[in-house]
Amino acid sequence: xxxxxxxxxxxxxxxxxxxxxxxxxxxxxxxxxxxxxxxxxxxxxxxxxxxxxxxxxxxxxxxxxxxxxxxxxxxxxxxxxxxxxxxxxxxxxxxxxxxxxxxxxxxxxxxxxxxxxxxxxxxxxxxxxxxxxxxxxxxxxxxxxxxxxxxxxxxxxxxxxxxxxxxxxxxxxxxxxxxxxxxxxxxxxxxxxxxxxxxxxxxxxxxxxxxxxxxxxxxxxxxxxxxxxxxxxxxxxxxxxxxxxxxxxxxxxxxxxxxxxxxxxxxxxxxxxxxxxxxxxxxxxxxxxxxxxxxxxxxxxxxxxxxxx
Length: 309
Known about the structure:
It is a single chain. By secondary structure, this protein is α+β, with helices and mostly antiparallel strands. The chain folds into three domains: 8-89; 110-188, no CATH class; 189-308. 41% of the residues lie in helices and 23% in strands. It is built from nine helices and eleven strands. The strands form two sheets. A nine-stranded antiparallel beta sheet has the order 1-2-3-4-7-8-9-10-11. A two-stranded antiparallel sheet has the order 5-6. The chain is elongated. The two termini are 37 Å apart.
C-alpha cells in the first residue's frame, strides 16, 4: 500500500487536544479555589477577602478572565474541526490514488489466472485432437503402451515400425503430441487483501459466466478506521474495439462509479462511452452535478459543466 504522506494519528491527536481545550474554555478555564471564590456571592467573597473593595476588584478580574477564555471556545472548536477536515481530505486523496493504482482485476491475479486457464484449455484441445488422430490410424493402444514415445514420424521411420504406420501418411497434416499437461487452474480469484502499518486494502470483483469483470469494489482503511470505498458496475461484458494501426484496443461499455468517502458522503459518476472511445461522465456529489467529457480512449476527462441541484 502506498505510504500515506500525512500522519493521520498526529492530526487526530491534535483534534482531540483542541476539543479538550474547548471544553475547558466553556467553563472559563477556572478550577479549584479560584473558581469557587469567583462563583461565590458578594458577601462570601468579602468575608473571604476581608474588604468589599478587594472583593469587587477580584470579581471584576475573575469575570473578565472568564469571558475572554469563553470567547475562545468557538474558535478552538472550529480549529479542532479543521484538523479533522485536513485529515479527511488527504486521506480521501490518498485513497483515490491507492484505489486507482489497484487495477482491480490485476490486483486479485485475474489476468494471470486467465493466462493459466487459456494454456490449460489449449492443452485439452490439443490432447483431444491428438487422441482422435491416433484412433483414426489405429495407434491408440500402441502409444498407451509406449508413453515415452511422442513423435509419430520418428516411430514410423524406425526399422521396427509398428503395423499401424501403414495408415499414417507424413505428407498429410497430422497433430503434434500435446506434451505434458499443465497444472489445471482452480476457480478464478475474486478478492485480494493487503495490510501493513499504513492500513488495509481490500479488493473484490464479480464475474459473469465467461469470467468477465462486471463489478469491482475496493475499500481502503487507514489505522484510524477511516474507509474510502469505490464501486464500479459495468454495463455488461467488455465491448472491445480494435482500431486500425498500432493503437491499443479499448472497451466501450458504459459503467457507473459510486464512491463513499471517509465521512460517509457518496458521489456517483455515470460514464457513457462512444464507439470512437470518446465519452461523457456525469458526477453527482451532494447538491452538485459536474459534467466531463473526453475526446478519445486515451484522453483525459475535462470538466465542461457544473450546476447546483
